[in-house]
Amino acid sequence: MRLKDQKNSEQISKLFDYIESMKIEPYSLQMYMGTKEKRVRHELEEKLRAKDNEIKDLQEKIKTLDPEGVKLNLIVCGSNRELKSFISKLILNQSERRSELSSECVRRDVELHGRLISLVELPALFNTQLSEEEVMRQTHRCVSLCHPGVHVFIIIIPDAPLNDEDKAEIEEIQRIFSSRINKHMILIKQSSEHQTAELNEETQSVIERFGGRHQFIDLNTQVSVLMEKLEQMVEENSGVCFSTETLMETQMEKLKEFEEMKRKIHLLQKQGND
Hints:
The chain contains 7 helices and 6 strands, in the order H-E-H-E-E-H-E-H-E-H-E-H-H.
């Protein structure tokens, strides 16, 4: 009987040893799987990193093959045609030859420091002999010439307080393009001295409307200084342009507002007759 108990005791002991070994095995398997998972994850990260580098290389190649991808589209606005011509020639690095008068939008292209620049002068929108329909046609043409859209609208004013014509031109630009244009706008002031103290209250108000973006400019101004500010604007807007689609959307919104106003007037007239 004692022999049998001893045998049972040995079997129980072996059973406990087996159970203990069963506890260790799952842990060892877990460790193995964890190591394998880390290795697989590391390999995937390496592959993703390689793909990212490949994509960046392809994007650079696309920019090289497609100039549109790195093109900077500018529209110069303002009531003073001579000032617009001055700033255009400064940016495009052209000689001071007198250009022919024209009410049509014309695009001029130049490459500076590996950057293709397209520039269009927008004809004065206020105090013009053009009809409303013709003004809209010209503005649409100007924007469409800057495919895929306008990065920066440059409005230039003379070295003097804003006169009524300048103020009316700015208001007309905003009426047509809407407040959506504000983040793409920079005001350039012709000046002999680069002093912000020269800005009067009205000019400061206009600048604030455009996010505080402005630049003094004269005959000694380095175009690189201006271009740096324009590039900064493009970066702040994440490369987003003011496109023909944006212009059409603003016109549709204005049309809806006009129709709603007509509806309200008609309703008030009807109530008055009743």
